[in-house]
TrEMBL record:
Gene3D superfamilies: 1.10.150.130, Intergrase catalytic core. Belongs to the 'phage' integrase family. This is Site-specific integrase. GO terms for molecular function: DNA binding. The lineage of its organism: Bacteria, Bacillati, Actinomycetota, Actinomycetes, Mycobacteriales. InterPro entries: DNA_brk_join_enz (IPR011010), Integrase-like_cat_sf (IPR013762), Integrase_catalytic (IPR002104), Integrase_recombinase_N (IPR010998), Tyrosine_recombinase_XerCD (IPR050090). Signal peptide: none annotated. It holds the Pfam family Phage_integrase. Residues 148-329 form the Tyr recombinase domain.
Amino acid sequence: MTVPSSLSGPSPSAETVAAARLLLSQMGIAPTDLIGDPILAPTFAEVIPLVRATLTPGTLRTYNTHFHRLLNEWGDRRLDEPAQHELTAMAEQVKVGAQAGGSRSGRGAVENFVGAARCVYRFAEERCWIRPADNPARKVSKPARRSAGRYAIPPQQLADINTAAASTGDDPELDCLILRLHTETACRRGGALSVRPADLDPDQCLIRLREKGDTERWQPVSPTLMRHMLQHARDRKAPQSGQLLRYRNGKPITSRRYDHLWARIGEELPWVAVQGITIHWLRHTTLTWVERNFGFAVARYFASHEDKKSGTTATYVKSNLPEIAAVVAVMTGEPHPLVPAFPSPPRITAAPAR
């Protein structure tokens, strides 16, 4: 609606507009309710493509399966049409499907489904396309998280894992490089898959890691790992701005390589399959070793954790890059360019470089 300039009066301040929006939100009234006929809420098919465009690649991978489900089942429905019990019923279908696919409880799948639904509705709320009162996802609870059953893998078992990877499969060189990268850096799977040749600093033996939460950090690595990553990039013709980890034919690997790797190791070492060990266990293993030998502050920095609940003390006991380089030097038994004098506490078993 256009208001004649003679009747519009002075423009309200930003503070006044914010206060008005807050009051309307508390009353369950959308600004669109105050002008003429109410505007119909958009459909899932209209909103989800817009939501996808705003998400990081990692978040999109997590939610995309559930976006597909919402589009297939409710694509033509408006966002204000489904009730809470309908979303709850769909969450139960997700749980049953995950259990049929091999998940023990289906909790993770349900948690991601609820997160995806909330993401869609939050996007619509922020644009005043629906009212908070018309958002059923607010009322659907995520399942309570259980404590992780992962633990630090003992040195001999870690050595057995590395041996199994090096002696089986169609590309042991790639698999050993993956294991060593995760063992030395404690990076997440997404961090390893995002590494590019441009992220390697061979002079200082540093790798730039980009992980969840849009975090980015330089992580020290051993000269051996750096040498093999550079060689891998050359041999498999990885472009400077493209993914580094690749198959022999030059095609970038995906998360499926990790699935196949651990399935194969599980065939060689049954306890790996029984315990459900994955690449994230290496992160637990390395960070546990770092904490035991170098303390909490160093382990926190090594993991790139920004835990706001750690208290004020964490502000004064921060670690730094040279300390992490010293940890890597001890871990691998190799001097590091950032460490002036080679330290000498205990070592951790790392995957052999091939």
